[in-house]
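Example for tutorial group B:
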C-alpha cells in the first residue's frame, strides 16, 4: 500500500521501502544466475552469446527507463504535495504513450538483432546463438515497458511490496520453464538457448497480467489506466522524459562501452567474452542491492522535497548510503576470497573460469564506490536533478575504453587490463558523485 515518507524514522522507512525492492531485484539476479547456469551447460559459446545480448538488452532497458525515472520524480512530488488529481493525469497519459512505444521497440528488436551481435566481433556460432536469443527476447518488450511504468508508479507512492510480490512470482515461473524449454523435459520441446529466451518472455507477461489485476483491486490510490483514448500531450511527455533522459543516456553509454570492451576482449577468445557474463552475473548481487536502495532513496527524496523538507531528504540519502557501504564491504570480501568456488557454479571450462576469477578479484576492490554511485544516482533522480549523475556516469564510463586499451596493450597486462579499467573508473565515479551530491544544489531543483 501507499505510504507517507515525510514523517517517521528515516532508517526504518528506508529499510521498509528498500527491502521489498531489493528482494525483487535479487530475485531477478537469482533468475539470471539460474539462467546462466542452465545456458552454461549448453556450452561456453552459448554463454558467450548471452553476454553481448545482455548488453544490448541493457541499452533497451535504459531507454525504457526514461519514463519511469521521470514518473518517480514527478509523481512522488505530487503525492508529497497531496495533489492526487495531478498524479492520476500524468500516470494515465504516460501509460497510453508507453504502450505505443513498446511495440515499436519490439519490431526494432526482431529486425536488428543479428546486426547488433555482429558488431561485437565474436565467432559466427556465437552470433547465430545470440541472434536467436535476442529475436525471441524482443517479444518481452511490451510487457517490460508497460510493467516498468506501472512499478514506478507504485514506488512513487511508497509501495514497493506489490512490485516485489509480482516480480518474485514471475521469477519462479521463469525458473520452472527454463530447464523444461532448454532441455526438452517431459512434453516440452528441446529448444536450447531459444528456450531460455522464451521462458523469460512468458515470465514477463505473467508479471504484467498480475500487475493489472492488482491495480484493478485498488492497490493504488488513483486510476492509472484511461477509460478512453487521451489526447497526445507532447509537453507532458517531454516534461517526464527530460528528467529520465540523462540517466537513460548514462545507461546507453554504459552498455555501449561494455560492447566495445567485449570487442577488445574478443581477440583473446570467446572464453574472455563469456567471463564478462559470468562475472557480471555474480557482481549483479551487489549491484541489485545498491539499486534497490537507490530506488528507495529516490522515493524518499521526492516526497520530502515535495513536502518542503530538504534536510530530511538529504539525511535519507546518507542513511541509505551508510547501509550500503557496510553491505558492499562484505561483498568485496566474499568476491575476493571466494571467487573460484563461486565461478565454478557457472562453468567447468578452465579458460572461462580462470578469466572470471580474475574479473571478480579485481572488481571486488571497487564495490564500495559502486555503492556510492548507484545510491546517490537514485537520490539525484528523486530530486529530478539527473544531469550530475549523467555527466559523472558518461565521462567515468567512457574513459574505460582508452584505459582498457592502454592497460591491455602498452602496459602489457593482457585481458585482465580490461577488468582493471572497470575498477579504476568505478572508484573515480563513486568519489566524484559523492562530492557533487554534498554540494546540495539538487535541493533547489524545480520540475
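The residue assignment follows.
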Amino acid at each position: 500500500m501507499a505510504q507517507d515518507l515525510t514523517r517517521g524514522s528515516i532508517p526504518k522507512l528506508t529499510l521498509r521501502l528498500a527491502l521489498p525492492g531489493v528482494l525483487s531485484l535479487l530475485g531477478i539476479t537469482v533468475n539470471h544466475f539460474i539462467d546462466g547456469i542452465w545456458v552454461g551447460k549448453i556450452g561456453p559459446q552459448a554463454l558467450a552469446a548471452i553476454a553481448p545480448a545482455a548488453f544490448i538488452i541493457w541499452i533497451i532497458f535504459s531507454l525504457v527507463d526514461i519514463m519511469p525515472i521521470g514518473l518517480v520524480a514527478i509523481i512522488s512530488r505530487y503525492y508529497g504535495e497531496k495533489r492526487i488529481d495531478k498524479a492520476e493525469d500524468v500516470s494515465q497519459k504516460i501509460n497510453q504513450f508507453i504502450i505505443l512505444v513498446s511495440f515499436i521497440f519490439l519490431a526494432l528488436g526482431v529486425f536488428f538483432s543479428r546486426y547488433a551481435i555482429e558488431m561485437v566481433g565474436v565467432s559466427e556460432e556465437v552470433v547465430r546463438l545470440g541472434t536467436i536469443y535476442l529475436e525471441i527476447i524482443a517479444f518481452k518488450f511490451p510487457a517490460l515497458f508497460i510493467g516498468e511504468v506501472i512499478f514506478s508508479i507504485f514506488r512513487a507512492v511508497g509501495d514497493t511490496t506489490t512490485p516485489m510480490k509480482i516480480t518474485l512470482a514471475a521469477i519462479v515461473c521463469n525458473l520452472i520453464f527454463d530447464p523444461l524449454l532448454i532441455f526438452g523435459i517431459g512434453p516440452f520441446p528441446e529448444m536450447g538457448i531459444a528456450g531460455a529466451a522464451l521462458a523469460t518472455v512468458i515470465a514477463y507477461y505473467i508479471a504484467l497480467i498480475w500487475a493489472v489485476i492488482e491495480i484493478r483491486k485498488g492497490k493504488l490510490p488513483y486510476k492509472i489506466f484511461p477509460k478512453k483514448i487521451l489526447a497526445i500531450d507532447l509537453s507532458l511527455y517531454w516534461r517526464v522524459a527530460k528528467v529520465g533522459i540523462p540517466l537513460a543516456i548514462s545507461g546507453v553509454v554504459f552498455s555501449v562501452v561494455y560492447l566495445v570492451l567485449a570487442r577488445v576482449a574478443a581477440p583473446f577468445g570467446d572464453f574472455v567474452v563469456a567471463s564478462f557474463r559470468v562475472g557480471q552475473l555474480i557482481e549483479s548481487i551487489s549491484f541489485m542491492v545498491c539499486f534497490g536502495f537507490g530506488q528507495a532513496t529516490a522515493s524518499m527524496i521526492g516526497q520530502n522535497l515535495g513536502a518542503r523538507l530538504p534536510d530530511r531528504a538529504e539525511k535519507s540519502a546518507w542513511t541509505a548510503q551508510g547501509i550500503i557501504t557496510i553491505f558492499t564491504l562484505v561483498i568485496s570480501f566474499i568476491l575476493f576470497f571466494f571467487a573460484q568456488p563461486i565461478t565454478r557454479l557457472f562453468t567447468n571450462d578452465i579458460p572461462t573460469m580462470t578469466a572470471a576469477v580474475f574479473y571478480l578479484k579485481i572488481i571486488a576492490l571497487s564495490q564500495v564506490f559502486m555503492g556510492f554511485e548507484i545510491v546517490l544516482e537514485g537520490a539525484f533522480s528523486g530530486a529530478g536533478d539527473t544531469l550530475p549523475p549523467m555527466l559523472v556516469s558518461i565521462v567515468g564510463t567512457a574513459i574505460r575504453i582508452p584505459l582498457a586499451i592502454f592497460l591491455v596493450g602498452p602496459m602489457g597486462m593482457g585481458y585482465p587490463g580490461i577488468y582493471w579499467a572497470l575498477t579504476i573508473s568505478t572508484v573515480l565515479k563513486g568519489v566524484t558523485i559523492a562530492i557533487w551530491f554534498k554540494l546540495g544544489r539538487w535541493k533547489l531543483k524545480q520540475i
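The two ends are 26 Å apart (CA to CA). Compare this with the pattern of hydrophobic and polar residues in the output above.
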